[in-house]
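In this section we walk through a basic example: taking a raw amino acid sequence and producing a predicted 3D structure, encoded as discrete structure tokens. The instruction is simple. Fold the sequence below.
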Amino acid sequence: MQASELKDSVGTLSSSSAEGRLLATDAAADRTKTTFVRAHARDLSDTVEHEAEKLADAQAENASVGARKGEAVRLAAQIGASLGQLQSPPSDEATASRVAKDLGDLNSRAQRLEDSL
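The resulting token sequence is shown next.
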């Protein structure tokens, strides 16, 4: 895996966490349907899981990329776990609010990682 490929994967993680944050914010404010939250969180989680699998299977071209790849894998796991919390029970506004904050923080980390590549 080259740095440019890793950057693309981290970009997917960043956009998924940003979209998840918006979804969680709407769920916390009771501005969206429970079924939509559950289904969309599952779709985002699937995307993140796919990126994590790609990252885990890839061989880094050098030690620097390898270290950042490891960070991206850990970030993907955390984003996936946060998105999973939206899937059940998505009508819990307190949980959705916490998840929105967590995904915002994870998105910031993903953006910093992406910018470093």
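Looking at the output, two observations stand out. The CA atoms of residues 3 and 65 lie 6 Å apart. Residues 3-28 form the longest helix (26 residues). In the next section we compare this with other chains.
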